[in-house]
């Protein structure tokens, strides 16, 4: 197992597999990656990296983008990672989920995280910059992947006057319950496109916590390894509340690093410098790859740091 200089183990890797997206969400942070990278790791590359990292203690692999389901070989990416024995999850807007559900479940996907900030079609279109009908497609995909045995987590960014009233929270909880899914409410962050609309749409996570309590929710404790996230239960649904980086504990217990679609390893979402793993990946150089990873671990900060460039 590998550790950084603050004693935190390296247990999780987040793969940013592309930069294209079919949505234009008002708060998008692009996963800290500049769009149109142009050079992508192959499905076989992901298998090699995952095998090496699994050998030193990495157990969880999360696939994200862009929109990862826009990759034509996304099922092969999942399959190559899953064959290492690690837990593979995928974050998506869900629009193409119905199309991919069968192949993703067969490839070994364990869980899908889908962003649904509201079940109101008009508000959904406004937030995501998508035409009418997209929300219906997402919901069809969610129920389809659930029938395939893949677990579901719903992500909702907290947005003032969009999903910060009792009815909106209750509807999201009801949707999660119907899917036997967990639910995350995420405080808006002033990064990426979120900078432009932060003052207009920011609502503290405490507003949602208050509503959950008023609806009969009970606190279950804190996820200390993840920013001390409060966890509630309501209507049989586990609900996590994620405060933005102004939370003093934000990232202090982080065990994750990120690999961009062009092979750069990042210690944090906006971290600079990045360590280039591409030469070692293409050469299938295990020793070189592990040395580069140790170099990256030595650069990790004790807490979240917002760099001036991404």
Automatic annotation (TrEMBL):
Record InterPro entries: Aldolase_TIM, Elp3/MiaA/NifB-like_rSAM, MoaA-like, MoaA_arc, MoaA_twitch, MoCo_biosynth_MoaA/MoaC, rSAM, rSAM_sf
Entries under Pfam families matching the protein: Mob_synth_C, Radical_SAM
Per the annotation, how and in what number is the cofactor bound? Binds 2 [4Fe-4S] clusters. Binds 1 [4Fe-4S] cluster coordinated with 3 cysteines and an exchangeable S-adenosyl-L-methionine and 1 [4Fe-4S] cluster coordinated with 3 cysteines and the GTP-derived substrate.
Which parts of the sequence bind S-adenosyl-L-methionine?
66, 115
Q: Which amino acid positions bind [4Fe-4S] cluster 2, per UniProt? A: 251, 254, 268
Which residues belong to any copy of the Radical SAM core domain?
5-229
Q: Which residues bind [4Fe-4S] cluster 1?
A: 21, 25, 28
The metabolic or biological pathway listed in the UniProt record of this protein is: Cofactor biosynthesis; molybdopterin biosynthesis
Q: Which GO terms describe its molecular function?
A: 4 iron, 4 sulfur cluster binding; cyclic pyranopterin monophosphate synthase activity; GTP 3',8'-cyclase activity; GTP binding; hydrolase activity; metal ion binding; S-adenosyl-L-methionine binding
For whether the record's keyword set contains Cytoplasm, the answer is no
What's a BP term from Gene Ontology annotated to this protein?
A: Mo-molybdopterin cofactor biosynthetic process
Q: Where does GTP bind?
A: 14, 62, 91, 153
Name what cofactor the protein needs. [4Fe-4S] cluster
Provide the E.C. number(s) assigned to this enzyme: 4.1.99.22
Keywords in alphabetical order: 4Fe-4S, GTP-binding, Iron, Iron-sulfur, Lyase, Metal-binding, Molybdenum cofactor biosynthesis, Nucleotide-binding, S-adenosyl-L-methionine
The family line of this record is: Belongs to the radical SAM superfamily. MoaA family.
Q: What does this protein do?
A: Catalyzes the cyclization of GTP to (8S)-3',8-cyclo-7,8-dihydroguanosine 5'-triphosphate.
Q: Mind telling me which NCBIfam families this protein's record contains?
A: PRK00164.2-1
- The name under which this protein is listed is Probable GTP 3',8-cyclase
Q: Which organism is it from?
A: Pyrobaculum islandicum (strain DSM 4184 / JCM 9189 / GEO3)
